[in-house]
Structures are given as structure tokens and as C-alpha cells.
Specification:
Elements (H helix, E strand, L loop, with lengths): L3 H11 L8 E2 L2 H7 L5 E2 L10 H16 L4 E4 L3 H13 L3 E6 L4 H9 L3 E5 L6 H12 L2 E2 L6 H20 L6 E5 L4 H13 L4 E7 L4 H8 L23 H10 L2 E5 L1
Parallel strand pairs: 3-4, 3-6, 4-5, 7-8, 8-9
Antiparallel strand pairs: 1-2
Helix pairs in contact: 1-7, 3-4, 3-7, 4-5, 7-8, 8-10
């Protein structure tokens, strides 16, 4: 589905917008483990996560082909902040649908970046339906959190960036562990990494109580789970894998593990 040029184009569009986040490592930890472990520190990215990559690139592609317009998105927080900053940089208005129980810090940061926030009950309402209605009523462009070709491509620059950073220090990416919510980061990063190193092993990681992707891999079709508010990983609370992300991950990802 993706070619190397897709990720190079995304990286070019993101140049000057995102940071190249570092690979962190510990000599003592690596000696204990018996192998070299590197952490791709997207927590040091602008807005605190990788989400700006996909949000900005998707917005960029839309505006190049169809012209600028206002933005609508839905998110528990990280995508919200990424979209809010991307919209601010593009000088357009953004409306974000967020759950009432989203962390205050993420709500406040999203508002501080200039976005209008509309709240919903994640246990009884559909954020997708609310966002789609807003988009249809206003003509705003709806940017999904993960299930979009350009969003996935933007997130995939994480994997491509990590590959080149490792190559620059004489290392190869043998295994790539990636957190999984809706599946956008792992879909993009696995697609990029497999293009540059077909032998890489890609492993997705989910909270044990939010293992919708693991269940979907086992059954061969997208499975829905009941969301329970019992995890610190609020950004991984997806009830079902994305349609596009799941299709990509089936072909690119080796396995899905869970953690407690």
C-alpha cells in the first residue's frame, strides 16, 4: 500500500514542524538485558506525543488538494492536541470532540492551543457520529485519529526516523515494539520499517484489558471490546481497531502482546 516515497514526502512536509525525537538508551539496562534496547522518545515531541505528525500531514495533504477549511476531530487527548497545534500552524479553526473524563491537562492544553472543545460521554455516546454531524453541518474537514491513509503515513515517519537514526550509529532495527490503540502508529511505522528492513519483527503491545487488536488478530476480523476505565493508558482506550489500520497491521505486524 505504501512506498518509500510516501514516507519521504511526509517527512519533507513535516520538516520544521516536528522534532526529530531522540533514541534513549541505558548502558546498564542493556548489559542486564543482554541486548541493545533503544526508546524512541516521542514523549519529547511537540504536544507530548507522535500525534502531531499524522494530524499535520493529513491537514497539509487536504489543503494542498482542496484548499484550506476548518477542522473537526475526535480524541481522548493526544490527537486533540496534535490537531489543535496543526490547525494553529495552518491558521484554521479546529473543533475537537473529547470525552468528559479526559485528563484535565490534555483538555486544557487543547484549549490553550486555540481549539474549541465539545464534550461527550465515551460510555454512552459515539464520538464518531458527533464529529461526523459537526463536519456535515459546517463543511469542516474531519481528521480521524488513526483510520486515514495520510494520518497513518505521517505517523509512519516515526518508524522511518528510527530506522535511519539506528543506521547512523551502525545498528539495525531487529525488533520494534509499538503501543497499539486504534493502530495508526504501528500501521505507519511497520509499513515504513518493512520497506527499509524486510527482516524486522514488529510486535504490537496493548493493555491486557483493552486487547481489541489482539482479539482481532486471533479471529481474523475486527473485534469490539467493552471499554473499562481501569488503565493508566487513557490514550489506548480504543474499543475496536480501525478498518484501514487493521488491514495494514494484519499484513505488516508479526504479533500482538499484552501487558498488565
Amino acid at each position: 500500500m505504501y512506498q518509500k516515497k510516501n514516507f519521504f514526502n511526509a517527512a519533507e512536509a513535516l520538516s520544521g514542524i516536528i522534532k526529530q525525537t531522540p533514541l534513549l538508551w541505558s548502558k546498564k539496562l542493556n548489559e542486564t538485558l543482554g541486548f541493545n534496547l533503544y526508546l524512541k522518545a516521542e514523549c519529547l515531541q511537540r504536544t507530548g506525543s507522535f500525534k502531531l505528525r499524522g494530524a499535520y500531514y493529513c491537514m497539509h495533504q487536504e489543503f494542498v488538494t482542496r484548499g484550506k477549511r476548518d477542522i473537526v476531530a475526535f480524541s481522548s487527548g493526544n490527537h486533540a492536541q496534535g490537531v489543535a497545534l496543526a490547525a494553529k500552524l495552518q491558521n484554521v479553526k479546529a473543533t475537537i470532540v473529547m470525552p468528559t473524563d479526559a485528563p484535565d491537562s490534555k483538555i486544557n492544553n487543547t484549549k490553550a492551543l486555540g481549539a474549541n472543545v465539545i464534550f461527550y460521554d465515551r460510555y454512552n455516546e459515539s464520538r464518531e457520529e458527533i464529529a461526523e454531524d459537526l463536519s456535515n453541518e459546517s463543511g469542516a474537514f474531519l481528521i480521524p485519529a488513526y483510520d486515514h491513509f495520510d494520518v497513518i503515513c505521517g505517523q509512519g515517519t516515526v518508524g522511518m526516523e528510527a530506522f535511519h537514526q539506528m543506521a547512523n550509529i551502525g545498528q539495525t532495527v531487529d525488533r520494534f515494539y509499538c503501543p497499539v490503540g486504534g493502530g495508526g502508529l504501528i500501521a505507519g511505522s511497520s509499513s515504513a520499517l518493512n520497506l527499509f528492513n524486510p527482516d524486522v519483527i514488529i510486535i504490537g503491545v496493548e493493555p491486557e484489558s483493552l486487547n481489541d487488536t489482539q482479539k482481532s488478530f486471533s479471529s481474523g476480523k475486527r473485534e469490539m471490546i467493552k471499554i473499562e476505565p481501569d488503565t493508566l493508558c487513557d490514550s489506548l482506550m480504543a474499543e475496536m481497531p480501525g478498518e484501514l489500520t487493521f488491514r495494514i497491521n494484519q499484513s505488516q505486524v508479526s504479533s500482538i502482546d499484552t501487558v498488565t
